[in-house]
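Action item from last week, closing it out:
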Amino acid sequence: MSLTGHKKPRAPARLSARDAVKAALAPYKSDLDKTEEALRGYYQSDVAYVPLISGHLIGGGGKRLRPLLVIVSSHLCGYRGEAHIDLSVVVEFIHAATLLHDDVVDSSNLRRGSVSANIKYGNQASVLTGDFLFAQAFTIMSRAADIGVVRLVSEVTRTLAEGELLQLGSTWDLATTEERYLDTIYRKTAALIAACCRIGARLGGATAEREAALGEFGAKIGFAFQLMDDLLDYSAKDAGWGKPLGADLAEGKVTLPVILALRQADTADRAVIEHAFAQGTERVALAEALEVINRRGALEATRAMAQKFVAEAKAALDVFEPSAPREALRALADFVIEREA
């Protein structure tokens, strides 16, 4: 009861990050549905492996973060055509191709909770289907009216390859620094996400300042997205995570939770982490390493860094007037750090 004797109005329930982003993205469902249809159409081929493996990976779901960023960014910048659908396919095909190649390089068994394509269909077929998706992406993109989009996506594809090679060079290397790690995740994750936002800006004829702001927004949420992936590898509780805890450690990937834990570790704790990397998939060693990583505050520090990147991403959007697309991007940014899988 209030001081006047009247009941206080009940405050509206706060939406979860998942519900908030779903509501914010509702106006773009039609565009996303068109993208899904176009994805299926463009991976058809009379070579049976292509639709089989492409459908296994792309048809198996995924967040569609990259197509969504192309779609919403283009709306934010006032675009009213249809080219954003094909360009959404381009970025998703490039992303899917890298996943097919990654799973072969990492000898992964699972992708999104299902048997990975390399396990189901073999390494050779997976790599070659990834090559098809890269080629198809560039075939579609060749129809883009803006040569700047073609140049942007071409450059970011090279950057992706550099990021994968940087990560390969850091595998099993516990001397990997935070600076090298951040450089790697910029190239292998954040650069493509930034490009998605810049594509939308270019489609809408945005000023250089606004294109740069959207690029910064994309890069920052790309960093946050990868940080959360690396965090969830050691902490996910959601069955939708789709891979065993500690998979990165078992594959020798030195990610930020490990780097930060080692920074705080004493000799005994460092020995535990080193032993876990030496043992790979041995569950007792993994459990001991997880205990050290948790106790040394590395997971909380990783989340804090992701939150900082998201705050900076949202601030980059301040050059745009308040609008439904701007709020949708802000909701997407919040979802990146509040997701459980």
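Closing note: The chain has one domain: 17-338.
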